[in-house]
Amino acid sequence: MSYRHLVLRALTIAAAVLFAGCSGASLATSSTTTPRTAWGDPDLQGVWRYEGAIPLERPARLAGRAALTEQEVAEQQEVEKEQAAKRLAGFEGAVVGRRSVGESPIRGNEYNSFWQDHGRPRQVSTRTSLVVDPADGQLPYTHEAAKAETRAAARYGVGPYESYLDPDTGERCLTDGVTGMMWQGPNGGHNRIVQSPGYVTILHEEYRDRRVIPVDGRRHGAVRQWFGDAVGRWEGDTLVVDTTNFLDRTNYEWANIWTRPSESLHLIERFKRLDAATLEYTITVEDPATFTRPWTAVIPISKLSDDTQIYEYACHEGNYAMPNLLRGGRTDAARAKR
Amino acid sequence: MRVVSWVIVVLASAAAGAFAWTHLPRSSAAEPYQPPRTADGVPDLNGIWQALNTANFDIQSHAARPALAVVPGSPRTGIPGLVRATHVDLPAPPVRALGAAGGVPAGAGVVEGDEIPYQPWALQKKKENADNWLERDPEIKCFMPGVPRATYMPYPFQILQSTNKVLIAYEFAGATRTIHLDKVGDSPSPSWMGWSRGRWDGGTLVVEVTDFNEETWFDRAGNFHSDELRVVERFTPVSANHLMYEATIEDPKVFTRPWKMRMPLYRRLDSDAQIREYKCVEFVEQLMYGQVGVVNPETGSRNQ
């Protein structure tokens, strides 16, 4: 992603309307009539992005608490504003990728922040986790998956990198998986939804991931794919997408274990417009290969201004990191031998 | 008598009908096809489409040949009575094992006049590209195919037509184009699939594509362009199940004048036709990186 691109995007987002009123009220109901497409379907079209500060899992320090106090929300809002201002001013390292600089095992990880786009200040909510079920806000990993998650977290950015199978699927320019596609990715977490009669298509900027979802009453086919086989239906104004037939990709390295597909993964997504600017996106994940029970997360997603574009994400085409990483691995191995 | 007059009437009617059928203009042939309209009142191009031709091998007319990568065979000499040394192209070693599955079928070109007006240096480069196909063709590395090549690769694509945006979802490499029918700003940078602005010209969707990089090719024969490429595409429904596709190519750095390709596109009528994943990055990692790391995943042993 070019610097120019990011500047343009930052300007676009900065120009977008701030709706501070949404903070802490993202789940509030709204009775606005859902807009319709020219052919009469509920209209979900536009560019959407998760801009909330709610973490997927409840942080340990908030164990047992489903909601923040008003004072905590106000304090957190100040922190988010300050961090956003620092980012706009060109400071680095305020928030870097999936963890803070302090937590990161990668020396010089600050490098990554310049090409990440966190947009406007993240919206603070009283909620303490996106996971609403189980009630403790934690992903119900199996023992094996928890071990894999710990191992993957320790390897992230550290290696070893002995072959192209060692970097995670994102670093290989494959995908970060479908489970987090609608709301993950600081390097391009934008999603354009385009509808046509009988189809809802979601174009995710990062890895140019794309889902063409038939919403025409057809049943699941027999072809397994990374993104599975998705079929949609309208329940009132809510789009419900049921996805099965995933490929087994549990043997690859994943930045987040919970996004990886396996043959037993069953994903149910619900897209519901709460108001003109907010989509309530609910995922229910069933996968006995990774979780002891199904879990559900409710994610408020923001609509960006109409002139926001999804740009081309030519990741593999420009993946200089891969050969450099592998050559670095060889240099390390040669040194270790001496 | 009565029967005879009936026979005469029937024969006369049949003759008149036959005359009309063969000699009078038929309205259905004279008028252009009227495609179904979308709820927005424009021609409905929604569907899964595919070209059925050999343009991805070579957009110009070409004879069949044994492989895309060839080496000259050893000339046969010293045979009594042989007037000319026989020269044959043989499949190059990296593709030889493919046998007939690796051959190139003959095909009529899709270029109007069958001539691509290269500048002299560019024609030379095209030949070099063809001679170094295995190393240079971006298709081999699963890079995005560019426009118009994405249209006539041997993979289907889906047109998803909304009111202000038309998406084209290509199967190969998961490439997607957003065609903006509404007002849109300029492209922030050059790109593989270009920047597409569309408009309706009667029954035709006209797409102007700009802001390309210079990385993509037109086919496996080494036909190429520069970053000054500009493509104007025309998608015209000509029957319920096919579109006529035209692409006008302009690139003053490489060609002496604009030129045009033209081909029909066919609707995929297979049951449960869908654009499937073809995430080919995974398929080319061994080719691109297998020898680079400490360990070669093919053998499980250390690279030397």
Give the helix/strand layout.
The complex is a heterodimer of chains A (about 350) and B (about 300).
Chain A: H1 3-15, E1 46-49, H2 70-88, E2 131-133, H3 143-155, E3 191-196, E4 199-204, E5 210-214, E6 229-235, E7 238-244, E8 266-275, E9 278-286, E10 295-303, H4 321-337
Antiparallel strand pairs in A: 1-3, 1-10, 2-10, 3-4, 4-5, 6-7, 7-8, 8-9, 9-10
Chain B: H1 2-23, H2 27-30, E1 47-51, E2 70-72, E3 89-91, H3 93-96, H4 120-131, H5 133-136, H6 149-152, E4 157-161, E5 165-170, E6 176-180, E7 195-201, E8 204-210, E9 230-239, E10 242-250, E11 259-267, H7 281-289
Parallel strand pairs in B: 6-7
Antiparallel strand pairs in B: 1-4, 1-11, 2-3, 4-5, 5-6, 7-8, 8-9, 9-10, 10-11
What would you note in describing this structure?
The complex is a heterodimer of chains A (338) and B (304). Chain A is α+β, with helices and mostly antiparallel strands. Chain A has one domain. Chain A has helices spanning 3-15, 70-88, 143-155, 321-337, and strands at residues 46-49, 131-133, 191-196, 199-204, 210-214, 229-235, 238-244, 266-275, 278-286, 295-303. In chain A, strands 1, 2, 3, 4, 5, 6, 7, 8, 9 and 10 form a ten-stranded antiparallel sheet that branches. In chain A, a hairpin with an 8-residue loop joins strand 9 (278-286) and strand 10. Chain A is globular, with a radius of gyration of 20 Å. Chain B is of the alpha+beta class and 304 residues long. Chain B has a domain at 47-61 and 105-289. Helices cover 19% and strands 23% of the residues of chain B. Chain B contains seven helices and eleven strands. In chain B, strand 5 and strand 6 form a beta hairpin. Chain B starts with a helix and ends in a 15-residue tail after the last helix. At the A-B interface, helix 1, strand 3, strand 4, strand 5 and helix 4 of A face strand 4, strand 5 and helix 7 of B.
